[in-house]
């Protein structure tokens, strides 16, 4: 039977200390529910002694009906030369209503003298008194030994004395923190083994990523005897971040045969990682191991040819085990195998179209030479393939568009787009304003099409990126525009290239609209107007 490892998530506390990460109370509550479903054992919600937002979170978290995780509040040991019973931070932990308190104390004699400026003996008393007081209030206590590895390397006897004080006071867990993130896996392994031989209390690891070793250090600690891992989703955290639980959990479970979460919960890992990234409004790294969109993406033709025979040739695990999926990219490096895989995804029969396949590959290479990039624009690639095989209806054609961008003194810039197009042979003129020229064009296009395809109301642009291709040409340089669009069920990306940023945007925008309309049901405009009046049901 696999050895269990307890997962302690601190995304809502340590994760929010990362630059650019800010979560509202509502955000924290939503993420807590996702973490509970993932199967983490502890969710550190914040520091009630530091701000009102965290106090509100702890109050409202009682309504979440979590089925797996315990919510824990974070704080520090009592202040020097005071009593634990009257310490405001400790009492806020008690008043928060949680059943678990996580407190940190000093393990490094340098910090004792320099940071809190007290004696080594008083620091030991601070640790003992704080843990004892919280235990007397009926709380489970997790003691985080801050800077433990640096402290141990500098003065091992004193560092051990600090955690032995926590154990003597009744701590339920002793967690060793690599707070500065400067330790190496071999050091972590040796020190954790020593600590486990000295304590009866179970040991945990809290690693920071300043040397990009937080995951490696966490795995080394578990192999050396630690049974709790603290970290964050996507590695969010102060400076260079914390141990990334999206890598820690699958490595422990799939590679080292420890038990962290159920198989079904593990399959939700990718969706949880992307959900947290979306809520935090942080772009997730495409090459993030296990859960990134490129984690199982294949571009080189030789690789693709091999994975068609067996995915194990270029994939270290089955992507679905962590809720991800295999992707085949089509680019100037692509061979026939790449297109065959793409065609299978689209139910296009390319098996007997060798010459046509070669022509499509050459077309893609020519376009990429011009600056197009299809590996990040799957929707544009799909449209290109469907057109080549006559598998797509040309729903509309564009005749012209005009853009007016105006600004008066004291007023904001106003953009207006006027579009002339044919939809199923019917000429349509529309005009619309937007907060920029691309937004105005988007609004005008959808305004023209909504009377034929009402479902297009659910579509909107979710991201817009511009990349200068040949910087040496300065303002005359070509640009590549990537547009990401979303509706109720899907997200897709399209690409456009031109020396004119508006034209490149227009091209990507047209592809986005065309992709959105694949499979949509057309209605007669008059029927739509009647439906809006409640005269018919459609």
Automatic annotation (TrEMBL):
InterPro entries: 2-isopropylmalate_synth_dimer, AIPM/Hcit_synth_CS, Aldolase_TIM, Citramal_synthase, LeuA/HCS_post-cat, LeuA_allosteric_dom_sf, PYR_CT
Pathway: Amino-acid biosynthesis; L-isoleucine biosynthesis; 2-oxobutanoate from pyruvate: step 1/3
A Pfam family this chain is assigned to: LeuA_dimer
Classification via SMART domains: LeuA_dimer
Single Gene Ontology BP annotation: L-leucine biosynthetic process
Catalytic activity of the protein: pyruvate + acetyl-CoA + H2O = (3R)-citramalate + CoA + H(+)
Keywords, comma-separated and alphabetical: Amino-acid biosynthesis, Branched-chain amino acid biosynthesis, Isoleucine biosynthesis, Transferase
Family matches, as NCBIfam families: citramal_synth (TIGR00977)
Name this polypeptide is given: Citramalate synthase
């Amino acid at each position: 039977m696999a050895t269990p490892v307890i997962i302690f998530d601190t995304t809502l506390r340590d994760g929010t200390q990362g630059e650019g990460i800010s979560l509202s109370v509502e955000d924290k509550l939503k993420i807590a529910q996702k973490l509970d479903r993932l199967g983490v054992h502890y969710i550190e919600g914040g520091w009630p002694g530091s701000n009102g937002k965290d106090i509100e979170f702890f109050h409202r978290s009682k309504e979440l009906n979590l089925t797996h995780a315990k919510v824990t509040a974070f704080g520090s040991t009592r202040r020097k030369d005071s009593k634990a019973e009257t310490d405001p931070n400790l009492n806020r932990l008690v008043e928060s209503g949680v059943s678990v308190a996580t407190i940190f104390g000093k393990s490094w004699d340098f910090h004792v003298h320099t940071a809190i400026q007290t004696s080594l003996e008083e620091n030991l008393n601070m640790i003992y008194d704080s843990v004892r007081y919280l235990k007397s209030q009926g709380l489970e206590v997790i003691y985080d030994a801050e800077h433990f590895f640096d402290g141990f390397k500098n003065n091992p006897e004193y560092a051990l004395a600090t955690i032995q004080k926590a154990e003597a006071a009744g701590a339920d867990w002793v967690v060793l923190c690599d707070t500065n993130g400067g330790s190496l896996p071999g050091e972590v392994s040796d020190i954790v083994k020593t600590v486990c031989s000295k304590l009866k209390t179970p040991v945990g690891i809290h690693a920071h990523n300043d040397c990009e070793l937080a995951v490696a250090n966490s795995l080394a600690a578990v192999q050396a005897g630690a049974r709790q891992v603290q970290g964050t989703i996507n590695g969010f955290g102060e400076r260079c971040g914390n141990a990334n639980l999206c890598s820690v959990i699958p490595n422990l479970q799939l590679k080292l045969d420890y038990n962290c979460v159920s198989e079904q919960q593990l399959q939700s890992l990718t969706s949880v990682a992307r959900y947290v990234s979306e809520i935090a409004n942080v772009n997730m790294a495409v090459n993030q191991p296990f859960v990134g969109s490129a984690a199982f993406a294949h571009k080189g033709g030789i690789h693709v040819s091999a994975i068609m025979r067996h995915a194990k040739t270029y994939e270290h695990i089955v992507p679905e085990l962590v809720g991800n999926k295999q992707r085949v990219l089509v680019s100037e490096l692509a061979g026939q195998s790449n297109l065959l895989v793409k065609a299978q995804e689209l139910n296009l029969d390319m098996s007997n179209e060798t010459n046509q396949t070669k022509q499509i590959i050459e077309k893609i290479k020519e376009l990429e030479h011009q600056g197009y990039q299809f590996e990040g624009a799957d929707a544009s690639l799909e449209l290109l393939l469907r057109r080549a095989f006559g598998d797509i209806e040309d729903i509309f054609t564009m005749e012209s568009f005009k853009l007016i961008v105006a600004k008066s003194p004291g007023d904001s810039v106003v953009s207006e787009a006027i579009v002339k197009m044919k939809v199923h042979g019917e000429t349509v003129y529309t005009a619309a304003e937007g907060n920029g020229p691309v937004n105005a064009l988007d609004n005008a296009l959808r305004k023209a099409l909504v009377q034929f395809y009402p479902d297009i109301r659910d579509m909107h642009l979710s991201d817009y990126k511009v990349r200068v291709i040949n910087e040496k040409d300065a303002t005359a340089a070509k640009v590549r525009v990537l547009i990401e669009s979303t509706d109720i069920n899907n997200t897709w990306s399209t690409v456009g290239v031109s020396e004119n940023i508006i034209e490149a945007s227009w091209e990507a925008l047209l592809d986005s609209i065309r992709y959105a309309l694949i499979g949509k049901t057309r209605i007669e405009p008059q029927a739509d107007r009647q439906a809006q009046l409640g005269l018919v049901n459609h």
